[in-house]
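Study this protein:
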Amino acid sequence: MKYFDYAKLKDRKWPKEVVNYVGLIHEYKGKQQLYLKQKEEKLTKLIDLAKRQSTEASNDIEGIRTTNSRLLKLMSDKTTPINRNEEEILGYRYALKLIHESFEYIPIKSNYILQIHKEMYRFIDVTFGGKFKDTQNEIVAIHENGVKEVIFKPLEPFETPLAIESLCEEYNKAIKEYGIDPLLVIPIFIHDFLCIHPFNDGNGRISRLLTTLLLYQSGFMIGKYISLEKKIQITKQEYYEALSKSSNGWHEGKNDDTAFVKYLLGTILAAYRDFEDRVSVVSKKQSALEMVRNAVHQRIGKFTKSDIIEYCPEIGSRSVESSLKQLCNEGLIEKRGGGRSTYYVKMK
């Protein structure tokens, strides 16, 4: 049977990069808390955007998709699911909503993880929602060319319930008794959870929901404003590589999970930096044109209208589009491509 011992983390020596990540994230956390005390009301649209992106991206990583127009309607309760993909997307939305609204009241225990899984499958006619796996499964990487690669064989079904209980128990001890920084414990917990792979389906999505839950409970609220799932989606290949590298020797307790710790901390740090950038745009009283101009100045390389909309949550799509047209007329940017492939580049 697989048991966990997080007490050893108290004496673990971490690479300088990990230590720096932890320090910077704590620094950004302090800045975020200071801003939220002053201007949280300005971020409503940023919260809505993060929820939509998290729901879309976490499902997209698993190949579960719908059209953008359908997604918007599902997120705003203006339609009902018409297929299995949309049922799964809507289920994730409800599970994420549960975490956003009740994270303080969700203990890290086996039965609560089962309830989150059940919530995610609330719209689907399956028997495994809220139950641990009953067949062996494998962690599979789906590459951009569609090729699947088996990168890890998890625990057997009969080992799973006790392993999850042990994992939750050690996580709670690490946070409440051992005094280990949550930023170090959370990535290790998530990595161990993925190695157990406790469900027939939905393990990746549940791991991302748990990441948000654990961060919230430790005071790191970045996922409320910037989608961590979106950042994982963008760096999906690096995600799989870090998971694979960190899992080598896991069954024997000889693995080095540093790669996954670095990956997840880097993702969290990138989200905090994005938050600071977007806050600098929305915190000032500016016209739509000036907000878009400032957002453009912060971009490197090519960007799309959607990229600018993310940075300017207070203004609508039409205002962003007209502002981009004005900046093109000024010669600050240039429009390239066409249709859905349209993008912009800075000229000055």
